[in-house]
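Records of this kind hold a single protein each, on a pair of labelled lines. Below, a sample record shows both lines together.
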Amino acid sequence: MSEVLTKVIVDCSTGVVAEVPLTGEELAQREVDAANAEAERVAKEAADAAALAAKESAQSKLTALGLTDEEIAALTK
């Protein structure tokens, strides 16, 4: 048995509330939206990881130049 996805339609002028199944087009758009959201999430995670790696690399280079952790912290504020 498959679940039927529905939407709620409210007619504000009459106060009538109706629950109707999603159309094929709405179901397709829902899947496209979900795929886009997942792609955006993966891209954000990759960008965050790259930024963290760049920060750690910069801190390592500053340490190699002889800066202390306190000096590095002062530069990154």
